[in-house]
Amino acid sequence: MKKKKISKEEAKKRIEELRELINYHNYRYYVLNDPVISDAEYDELFRELQELEEMFPEFITPDSPTQRVGAPVKEGFRPVRHSVPMLSLQDARNEDEIREFDARIKRFLNLPMNTLIEYSVEPKYDGLSCEIVYRNGRLEVASTRGDGYVGEDVTPNVKTIKTVPLRLIKNEDLPIPPLLEVRGEVLMPKKDFEELNKELIRRGEKPFANPRNAASGSLRQLDPSITAQRRLDFITWGVGLVEGVTFKKHSEIIEALGKWGFKTANPRAVVKGIDKVIEFYKKMESIRDDFEYELDGVVVKVNDLDLWEKLGTTARSPRYAIAAKFKPRQRTTRILDVVYQVGRTGTITPVAVLEPVEVGGVVVSRATLHNFDEVERLGVMIGDKVLVQRAGDVIPEIVMVIKEERTGKERPITPPKECPVCKAEVVREGAYYKCVNASCPAKLVQALRHMASRRALDIEGLGEKTARLLVEKGFVKDLADIFYLTKEQLLQLPGFAEKSADNLLKGIERAKNPTLAKFIYALGIPNVGEYTAGVLAEHFKSWERFSNASFDELISIKGIGPETAMSIVKFFKEPRNREMIEKMFKAGVKPQAVEEVKGSPFAGKVVVFTGALSSMTRDEAKSWVERLGGKVSNSVSRKTDLVVVGENPGSKYQRAQQLGIKMINEEEFLKMLEEGKKALGIKE
Ligand code: IVH
Fold it and tell me: Got the DSSP string for 176-221?
C-alpha cells in the first residue's frame, strides 16, 4: 500500500474512524458469524490502522483493535484463560512481502543476508482456532481463541469432533506428557459446508457465507447436540504449554502430535531459504481447489525453536511466523444492472452486471444469479452491495446481499417478459424462464459454442464470438452448416484473415471423426452431459444403434433415468434433428463406433509426448491420438502406456526410463498413426 502524506490531525480522526469500523466488523465476524465485508477488505482496514499507528505511535491505546486479537466471550459460555496467549499472525499478501519477512528476521538476528533460514511450511486452514488441554493423556478442556487471552469453554462441543482424540495414543519412543496444550483449527470440509447450506436454504434459514463461518457457527453452540450433527474436523498446527517432553524444532512438534493421534497439516515441508518457501506457496495456490478444506494461504514458520525465543513476539503476533495469504476470492461490490442470457436450451439466466472488482487475481464485472429462485432466496435488488465469490474456473457468483448497506434507492429485479434476443414469448418452468422459439438465434449460438467446445468436437477458433458472427451473417442456420462453411464466407467475418480462416477450416475438418461419446455429447441433447454420453456410447457402440434406441432400452441402461431417456427419444422424434444429423454425415462427419476405435493401435492407450516433433505440432499429434482412441497426458506415470520421444526430450524421458515405459521415436509414431487411420478408414 502506498503511504500517503497525512497530517497529525487527519491521522487522529482516521484512526478513530478505523477503530470503530474494525470493532463493528469484529462483532459481525466473531460474535454473529455473519460478516458484512470480505476478509480482504477487513485486512485492508486493519493494515491501514496498523500503518497509521506506526506513523503516530502516540495514538496507540491499549483498547485499539491492533493490540488484541479475536473476540470477546459469547454469552452463555464459561470463560477459559489460556496459559500462553493465543496470538494471531501477520499477513504477507505477495512474494515481496514474504521476502521482506525473511529479510526482517535476518536483520533482527544480525545474520548475513545470504543466510538460508530453515522454515517449516504448511497450509493455512481457514477455520477457527481452538486449544485442547490434555492432562495425563486425557482430554480435559477445550476452548476457542477468544480475545487471545480468554476464550470460550467449548469442551462438550469439541468432544463431538471425530478427529479429536479423547485420549492420546501411547507410543514407545514418545511419552504421554503430564500436560499438553494442543492448538489447531476447527474446520468444516467444503463438501459438508455446501450440503449444510443447501439444507439451511431448504429450511428457509440463512446460509453461511463460507466454510469458516459455518465451522464457527457449528462449534459455538450452547447445545452440543447441534455441533454433533455437523461434520467438523480438527487439524493441529502447534502447542501451548507442554510438560515432560522437549522439542528443538517446530516440525518435531507436529510429528509428535501426529503420533499422539491428531490430524496434522498436509502437505507440509521443511525447506531451506525463502526461494523454496515461495515455491511451496505458489504450488499450493495453484492446487488450492483440490483440497478437502478451504485454504487461505500458507503459514511459514522458522523451524528452529531456539530462534523463536530470540525473535519473540509483538503484542499481537510472533516474529517467527507469517501467514502468506492467497489472492482473496470474495470481495464486496455493487450490482449496477441485471441482464438476461439465453442458453442453448433456451433457458434465460439472470446475470448481474457489477462494478468491476478484482477477485482471485481477475477483474470480475459479471456474476451469475443462476435463476429466479436464487434471486428470491438472496433477496437481491439492483443497486445492492453484495459479496461476490470466484473459485477456480467457476463462474463468479453472488454469495449474499449486504442488506445493512441499503439506501432505499434499490430496484427490484423483474423476470423477463420476452426473450431478450428474439423477443419471442417466455414460459416459466420451475425456477427458470425459457424462450419458446425453437429457432431463437441465441440458442443456436450457444449450441454451436457447445458443439465446438474442448470436451465436445474441440473445434479450435470457434468460440462464442465467432459463433455469433456466423449466425448473424446467416451463414449458419443449424449445427450442420458448420461443416459447409467456405473460406469466402469466413473472410467476410470481421477479424478474419487468410490464416485464421484456414485454421478454422482445418479445425472443422479435424472434428469430422469424433469418438461416438464426443459426438453424442456435442449434439447438446438436454440431460445428456459428458458422462451420460460416455455411458451411451459404451452401451450402444454405434451411432445407428443409439439413434434408433427405444425408451425401454434406454432406461434399462445403468445410470440412465426416465428423464434422460425421454429427452433422447424426443430429440430423435424431431424430424429437424434427424435431417440436421444426416446433413452432417453428408459433409463427411463420421462418429467412430466403439469397436472401430478398438482396431487402432492407440485404442485405450495413455500417450505422453516429450521433445519436439518435426512433422507436426504437438497439438496436431495430440488430436490424432485422440481421434484414434488414445488419451494424451502431460506427465509420465505408471499409467502411461507409451512415450513418444521427439527432439531434445525433457525430464519426462528420464522418468519414462526409470519406470520402464515403452518409448518410440517419431518415425515409429507416424507408422502407428498410418495403421490407426487405416483401421478406422480415415483417408487424409
Ligand atoms: S500457526 C501465533 N499454522 O491462522 C499463531 N496457524 O492468522 C500461530 N491457522 O490463529 C499460528 N492454519 O487459527 C498456524 N498451519 C497453521 C494454520 C494456522 C490456520 C490459523 C490459526 C491462527 C491464524 C493466524
Answer: PPSEEEEEEEEE--HHHHHHHHHHHHHTTPPPPSSHHHHHHHHHS-
Q: Name the least confident of 171-185, 505-519, 623-637.
A: 623-637
Residue the block writes with cell 464485472: 365
Q: What is the pLDDT of residues 115-144, one digit of tens each?
A: 999 999 999 999 999 999 999 999 999 999
Please write the tens of the pLDDT for every residue from 168-196: 999 989 999 999 999 999 999 999 999 99
From atom 7 of ligand 1, which residue's Cα is the shortest distance away?
A: 89
Query: To test the ligand 1 pocket, which listed residue (29, 237, 291) has its Cβ within 8 A of the most ligand atoms?
Result: 237
Nearest CA to ligand 1 atom 22: 88
Residue of 322, 277, 320 lying closest to 108 (CA atoms): 320
All three cell numbers of 145: 481463541
Residues 239 and 379 in one domain: no
Q: Domains in the chain: how many in total?
A: 5
Q: Grid coordinates in use for 255? A: 510429528
pLDDT-derived band at 1 (thresholds 50, 70, 90) equals very low
* Residues with active-site annotation: 124
CATH code at 55? Answer: 1.10.287.610
Work out whether the CA dihedral 513, 514, 516, 521 comes out positive or negative.
negative
CATH number at residue 492: 1.10.150.20
Q: Would you give the end-to-end CA distance of the chain in angstroms?
A: 59
Between CA 290 and CA 288 the distance in angstroms is 5
Check: pTM over 0.70? Answer yes or no.
no
Residue 387: give its domain's CATH number: 2.40.50.140
Contact between residue 161 and residue 182 where contact means Cβ atoms under 8 Å apart: no
Instruction: Estimate to the nearest angstrom the gap between the alpha carbon of 655 and the chain centroid.
Output: 30
Range of the domain at 474: 441-586
Mean pLDDT comparison of 172-176, 272-276, 400-404, 529-533, highest-scoring range: 272-276
Ligand 1 pocket, Cβ-based, cut-off 6 angstroms: 87-89, 122, 124-125, 129, 185, 237-238, 265, 299, 318, 321, 323
pLDDT at 2: 46
